[in-house]
Amino acid sequence: MMMKKILMAAVAVGSIACSASADSDSFAMVNGKVMTPEGWAEAVLVKNGVIEKVGSNEDVLALSEGMAINDLAGAAVLPGLHDVHVHSLFAGVEQYMCKLTPGASPDKIASAVKKCVADAEPGEWIVGGNWVAAVFEDGQQNKGFLDQIAPDNPVALQDESHHSLWVNSKALEIAGVDSSTPNPQGGVVERDGNGEPNGLLRETAEGLVQKFIPPVNNELKRKALKLSTTQMLSYGITSYTDAGVTQNNIGVLSDLTREGVVKQRIRGCIRWAAYPEQARNASEDLINHRIKYSTERFNTDCVKVVLDGVPTESHTGAMLEAYADAHGHDAMAKGILMIPQDDLNAAVTAFDDRGLHIKFHAAGDAAVRAAIDSVAAARAANGYGGSAHDVGHNSFVSVADLDRVRDLGMAWEFSPYIWYPTPIAFNDIMRAVGEERMKRWIPIKDALDTGALVTAGSDWSVVPSVNPWLAIETMVTREMPGGSEETLGASQKISLADAVRIFTAQGAKLMGQRHIVGSIEPGMSADIVVLNKNPFEIPITEVHTIHADKTFIAGEKVFDASSAESQAALKAK
């Protein structure tokens, strides 16, 4: 009876004590549902940013004298989430660009671009996205469509996958791209019946125009990165991998983590350019000088290798079998494998020998196989002590390759956000590959069943929302968020417990952080999130509505949904 009175008194003053010590990294949380490796606990004690005790209210309160006490009022507390594939700077910068509504019709695209032109100076670049090819009628999407809206302003709009660029005649003129321009290695300049560029640039051909777009200034970079990382914190993402680090963004990632403006633990994967030689030399120079950019929260031990494009109407994803909608002797019938296997094997073996982690972009099953083959070559040359190199995306995977990832000590990184809210899967991808192959689309369960390390990444801003709860819900249902009659790859459904584990402990393992984060237990860093709803106590079709009430990293409260400051930081200004 006496202990109950002490507990009630402590909880009664908890909110006052907490508000008085808002910046403290030592506190207690009681009356909650705390997820631990052994099950659910009532309370957790944090001292100097480290989890000291997890257990009953009584256990924690007995050790919390003089500390702030948070009454959770039944709220769920989970380990911080790991998104292992984000493009964090561009995700922020894109919110200051010419924005298209996901899945927008041609009329709405025209209206949005027209407004952007009206707000721009004469001759100023109109840059933005994202468009979905499935909304256009045959032949409708071309440079002429944009020329009518913006005859004097160069326009460059990314597609939903960020693997195709749609430009107008002014942009092509500035870039000097015409009928005599050859396709760059790993890319395609689409052309009309007269051999003239039609305004669609695929894969590396994007670079023909992008190099003429004025760079984003440092002030906007800082604002954009602060915006995107705060948005991630609002969903409980305490660690992430930036899967596209270049000379353009490595400095701001380094600076803002060093200054403490960006709070997350970040792994940066420096994009390696295989071709042309000048680009390769520049990317390898950055890899060689990566250490000078590393900070306590920004690890630069990773290399990004892009092997193919995307399995949409562009036919740039590398497939083992021809696309269902390929015609005759179509040169793109099986997509594009961007790096010859011998070159890939040599590069991966060299990076692996230096202790670097490799993240592959591989959407088609032929690209997935190429990635696995290259790691097999590295293991044969260097032994099995290297990093758990991960294959990213894996929209399609041959059954014959599933066990190989486990056997080679590799990892899978899937992209389950792709259901929401664009029609890319049900239209672009299904139309390109056919319904039969879609039955095993994003084969997460198959991968889990092998015992391999399985993780997930958003690829934000390729998807319009970084919300991990969208992915967690749809990995379980294989339906649209909120439920739908339509399903994709129903055989690949997994349990909610596995989906949460993929975003917590599994993500921490892949990022090399499992020794300090990924679970709530004594001795671990207090990277934890208090949720507005418990995912295990609501209908699965409501999980996508979850967000963070509070997010902590090393015991520091880095996001508070009730704070006006946090709410203001979520919006582009």
Which strand order does the major sheet show?
A: 8-15-16-17-18-19-20-21
Question: Residue share in helices?
Answer: 25-40%
Protein structure class: alpha/beta
How confident overall, as mean pLDDT? 92
Low-confidence stretches: 1-22
Largest sheet: 8 strands, parallel
Euclidean distance between termini CA atoms: 54 Å
Q: Give the strand tally.
A: 24
Beta-strand fraction estimate: 15-25%
Tally of separate helices? 20
Quaternary assembly: single chain
Description:
The protein is α/β, with parallel strands linked by helices and 573 residues long. It is 32% helix and 21% strand. It contains 20 helices and 24 strands. It has an eight-stranded parallel β-sheet with strand order 8-15-16-17-18-19-20-21. Strands 3-2-7-22-23-24 form a six-stranded mixed β-sheet. Strand 4 (43-47) and strand 5 form a beta hairpin. Helix 12 (341-353) crosses helix 13 (365-382) and helix 18 packs across helix 19. The longest helix has 18 residues, at 365-382. The protein starts with a helix and ends with a helix. Mean pLDDT is 92; it is low at 1-22.
List the helices and strands and how they pair.
Layout: H1 2-12, H2 14-20, E1 27-30, E2 33-36, E3 39-41, E4 43-47, E5 50-55, H3 57-61, E6 68-71, E7 76-79, E8 81-86, H4 88-93, E9 98-99, H5 106-119, E10 126-131, H6 143-149, E11 155-159, E12 164-167, H7 169-175, E13 187-191, E14 197-203, H8 207-210, H9 218-233, E15 237-245, H10 250-258, E16 265-271, H11 277-288, E17 298-306, H12 341-353, E18 357-362, H13 365-382, E19 390-393, H14 402-407, E20 411-414, H15 424-433, H16 435-438, H17 444-449, E21 453-456, H18 468-477, H19 496-510, E22 528-531, E23 548-553, E24 556-560, H20 564-569
Helix pairs in contact: 12-13, 18-19
